[in-house]
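Hey, can you fold this?
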Amino acid sequence: MKLNINENKCTRCGSCEPECPNEAIFQTDDVYVIDTKLCDGCVRYGTPLCKLLCSSNAIHEIKDSVYKKYLGLRIFN
């Protein structure tokens, strides 16, 4: 499962970033982003920790077809 942060819902509280065991969440100039290459959906914990902590419900699962399109548009390495 890959996750994404909806920047329109995100309050930029930063609570998700330190909780990510894969260090997949980072802050750009004004938004938080999940690097999908590093995110594994916290499979070893059974549920995404960042999603549990997000008070604004801004973190959601990316559907496979949308995820594949997203990879083609990525600006991150």
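Oh, and this one too while you're at it.
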Amino acid sequence: MDGEEIQRVVRETNYVTWRRQAGWNPLVVARAEGSKFWDSAGKEYLDLSSQLIATNLGHANPAVVRAIAEQARTLPYAVPGFATEPRALLSAALLEILPKGLDRFFFSTSGTEANEAALKIARVATGRTKVLSRYRSYHGATAASISVTGEMRRRPIERVQRVPGTVFAPDCYCYRCPFGLTYPDCGVACAEYVDYQLEREGDVAAMIVEPVVGTNGVIVPVPEYLPRIREITRKHDVLLIADEVMSGWGRVGEWFAVDRWNVAPDILTTAKGITGAHIPLGLTATTAKIHDTFRDAYFPHGHTYEAHPLTLAPAVAAIGEYRRLGLLEKSRKDGEYLLARLREIGARHRSVGEVRGLGLFAAVELVKDRATRAPFNTEDDKLAGRPLVVDQVTAAMLKDGVYCVGWVSHLIVAPPLIVTREELDHGLEVLDRALVLADQHAVGA
């Protein structure tokens, strides 16, 4: 098929996620390599957001591709009740890099499924019902994971697909503090309020957090926040689930974001970068103490593709590549450069309210008024299908050969960890030019 035919067939026969189906005219992507991909007409694009903050190793990493091919030839599938070599090899590798104490593993095929498993495990293991989450969060699309998602994607479906028991806590979001306070004089009220909630709520099994919030703004907590949340959840005998689907695998300069604050959760979930998104794999890692609750009790979870060997072998190869290429250290160093450049760019544009991030994981928050911090658009605008200023910016960037994710009123800059300085500079130059479009909608000098 040529590009036009591919687009027509896909558009006319497929659902596309998280949007109205009308007006969808997808770019036809033909191939990808490194930090770039090409459309069906041969036009080259720089991937400035690692697709969906997933292709941490870049596209078509040879070692990962080779592992997929070799596993497909050797053992493409085995039922979950069997042991396989890639299952053993990946389990051994994970013991070396996960936070201490996380040494029991359930393998699935996505971050959503990893969180679904974590929520079920937490509720059954504790015998409690409720889960504490936060408003600026996304944890997945299945019944339990969407129920603990705080942002707007929960709203259209919760009346018909809602698992009861979610309680939402305030966000650690200094730019828009829910208490109207200023750090550090705030006393980290967003964490202390969790103590207040757990004192009074009762029947809480777990608290689930993205250590660095992903889609909803790359919100980096203040240094005291996560350690204090860990203290509070332990005090109340509540499990702490760290959702590292986006923030893991070198994205913030460590294997996992919790490592930045020396926090050990009871459960950690991840996906995306575990294989560099070369193949779907999700992981739910728990402590042995949680696993022991199921030694003589029925474990009520599973699916056909659990521990699928074709997904596990490339994860072993991916871990080797993160090490061989020194990508954790590179992410830290390049992340400092990225934030400095973004702040320099932001200072030139009245539409930029804040630049924030950690490692190669950054957000540019767009505002129509810097003084009031009023955003160009809201979640209600997104749900209603109204035109978004951020979409104008990302469309201009795509036309200029750079792909960047925009969400409601911010951009997510998260290139593959292998990105070169030259590629990064090019992407930022295109971003700089595109922000002029947002400036035209902003007020003030």
